[in-house]
Design a protein that fits this description.
Elements lengths: L14 H10 L5 H32 L7 H22 L1
Length: 91
């Protein structure tokens, strides 16, 4: 008995990519391609999550003192203001 249910997928321009893979003989049917694509997406998302977790851990372990958010935003506003002024001069 089937444990999954059939679905309908509209690929639009990506249909050509699916057809090319089928024609290559690397896959027997569209289901194999979609399963491979989902596995690749799972790996990509896991890698991104691992990267982000490492960045957070490194940030938490950073011995430098914290900078108040108000100071950060004040600095960002100043940089943005200088960028706008430079763009207006160049326009």
């Amino acid at each position: 008995m089937r444990t999954s249910k059939p679905i309908t997928v509209t690929l639009g321009p990506m249909q050509a990519s699916l057809e090319r893979r089928l024609k290559s003989g690397d896959y027997d049917n569209a289901s194999e391609i979609l399963r491979a694509a989902l596995r690749a997406l799972d790996r990509e998302e896991a890698a991104i999550e691992e990267h982000l977790r490492a960045k957070v851990a490194a940030s938490l372990a950073d011995p430098r003192k914290n900078v108040p958010a108000a100071d950060v935003f004040r600095h960002l506003r100043a940089v943005h203001s200088r960028t706008l002024k430079a763009a207006k001069r160049g326009a």
